[in-house]
Amino acid sequence: MSTEIKEQVREKYSEIATAVKESGCGCYGCCGQPTIEVSMIGNEYKGVEGHIEEADLGLGCGLPTEHAAIKPGDTVLDLGCGAGNDVFISAIITGNTGRVIGLDFTPEMLERAKKNQRKLHFNNVEFRLGDIESMPVEDNSVDVVISNCVLNLVPDKAKAFSEIKRVLKPGGHFCVSDIVFEGYMPDGLRKSIEMYAGCISGALEKDEYLSVIKKNGFKEINAVKYRKIEVPDEVFEKYLSKDEIDIAKKSHRGVYSITVTAKVE
After folding, report:
1. 105-114 burial: b if 16+ Cβ within 10 Å, else e
2. DSSP string spanning 91-109?
3. Is residue 162's pLDDT more than 50?
4. 90-99 residue pLDDT tens
5. Dist CA 161 CA 73 (whole Å)
6. Are 56 and 149 in contact (CB under 8 A)?
7. Is residue 258 within 8 Å of 213, Cβ to Cβ?
8. pLDDT, tens digit (0-9, with 9 covering 90-100), for 63-87
């Protein structure tokens, strides 16, 4: 099942990477659906230094660079970098004395990211093809790990956070934005691979998500931002039966964007 999920996610984001984005429409949100949009990010990137429109496919659910405490000279790793949006923002902060690595397992996304890099002439940026559960990154080599609405798509989240810990230097830290839920999550959403590739059905319950981080030995774990995401009725109608919709509206307390920071000793 894990392999099947990964292939579905890869296929979905390959389609997004090769699609022509309509100017300003935001029609490919995190859900990757051209007809049903679940708005995850809104306009949080507006005015952020280093934000490049061509690299922003509207796939995020937060603004991890805002809370990542990136410093000039840092080595930063962006997991699931897509077309390079957070990579280029981080590269502005680290400056020429720093380095930013963008990791993604979708070749089409990396092709788009590299095209943006050539256009923008960033010399402190590198893009790598790889799986978050087995990163092509050296042990103890990164100061800061960031990720934006991607770890939620990884089937083995414990392994993902274990890999983050492996690559971080002693005293290093991460800042990730992701999707979690509180309350009842209908089986129709949880089991749908299509919605898994769209962030929602892959979500863990908030306390479980934070527990995975803690069990991997991270310290000073903080949810620095927490925001409810409004799921349109059309999504429920597409994936749930009438009875499930009734249960969901009575019991489902919500899907949330969460931004979490933590460090290694």
Report:
1. bbebbbebbb
2. HHHH-TTSEEEEEES-HHH
3. yes
4. 999 999 999 9
5. 24
6. no
7. no
8. 999 999 999 999 999 999 998 999 9
Enumerate helices (H) and strands (E) in the chain, giving the number of each.
Answer: 10, 8
**Which residues on neighbouring strands pair with residue 142, listed in sequence order?**
168
Query: What is the spatial distance between Cα 37 and Cα 64, in angstroms, rounded to a whole number?
Result: 22
Q: Which domains does the chain have, with CATH numbers?
A: 2-263 (3.40.50.150)
pTM: 0.87
User: Which amino acid appears at position 212 of this protein?
Assistant: V
Any idea which residue has 């994936």 for tokens? 239
Residue 62's identity, in one-letter code, is G
Which among 255, 179, 259 has a CA at the least distance from the CA of 225?
A: 259
Q: How many CB atoms lie within 10 A of CB 8?
A: 15
* Paired sense of beta strands 99-104 and 75-79, if any: parallel
**What percent of the chain lies above the pLDDT cut of 70?**
86
The angle subtended at Cα 128 by Cα 123 and Cα 134, nearest 5°, is: 145
Q: Which residues pair with 129 in a beta bridge?
A: 104
Asked if 70 contacts 93 with a C-beta cutoff of 8 angstroms, the reply is: yes
CA distance 214 to 171: 16
46, two tokens: 């507006």
